[in-house]
Amino acid sequence: MTPAPFACRPDRSRGRLYPEPDSPSRSAFQRDRDRIIHSAAFRRLQYKTQVFVYHEGDNFRTRLTHSLEVAQIARSISRRLGLDEDLAEALALAHDLGHTPFGHAGEDMLQELMAPHGGFNHNAQSLRVVTHLEQRYPGFDGLNLTWETLEGLVKHNGPMVGAGKAPLPAYIAEYNARHDLELSTWPSAEAQVAALSDDIAYNNHDLDDGLRAGLFAIDDLTPLPLVGSMFAAMTERHPGLGASRLIHAVVRELIGAMIEDLVGETESRILALKPDSPEAVRGLGRPLVGFSEAMVASDKALKKFLFPNMYRHHKVTRMTSKAKRVLKDLFNLFLAEPELLPDEWHRQAKGLGTPDTARLVADYIAGMTDRFALEEHKRLFDLQIKP
Asked: Which of 115, 148, 257, 280 has the most CB atoms around it within 10 Å of its CB?
């Protein structure tokens, strides 16, 4: 397909912070994608969870499988719209690199613990990972990604500066002051696609996991627009279909319906707004990529249902409460006794004041997997003395 005039072009990228020779076999955005996939932070997503802790079942989604699902959706949409698939894929694969162990419970706990020391924000942590914490290359810290990938990563939820916006997380403000990411504008169309692909995957796959975990039943979904009618229609077309196949079939149709709605609505906006460059997309003052009003309403209804019935279900909250205690114990111990950190982290902590030590500890804990955090807690807090 001919690239859309407003698609990002790798040969017109604004470049990397540290100049490097072009790859003879990959575009700039393909190289970004590959660096993300080969990073340690990406590998650790295998044992970082969304809702369920890793040991609660092998069939539930992790941050890694979720990121792969988002990337697949983002590529499909980008192909339909004539956008750069590789940039959209890179952003989809990178969007969760800054997440803590234990999903949102872990992030909430680190936000609370870091409140006196500059705060914690998972988007800012993703930027820290790809610009500082990954240390693989001889000439620079981080992955040295293109400006377009960094912009889309930071503006995952849209503009960060403007009326009604929260203050910038400290690291984003610091980085932006040195390397302007144009935080007052919407990001590229590819970044917008990656962000909405995250919504498509997140809601539908949480619906799938919640049903399979028995947190709620198919009948509970009857009042929901789109979701309820799809289950009813699928049951009518295939009477007697087993629950597992029914859930899979409906979730697949829901994802397809959301993709078709997004493509159709975005094509209408393209016709109306006529952007002719990536810069024109950023300057529209509104998103180019989006759902129809009807789909937005359906999406909100599903989110409203999932909040009490899944994310606040007592089976989930019991485990997230434990997870928060684990991270709080680890944070307070490492802050008080940084010599308990691994050698390379302990060396960095020497001579630091409390705020900088707290940031170092937050970096270390945020990079943990669920499994490692539980094992580390057991090693440090199991007071039983063994011969």
From this structure: 148
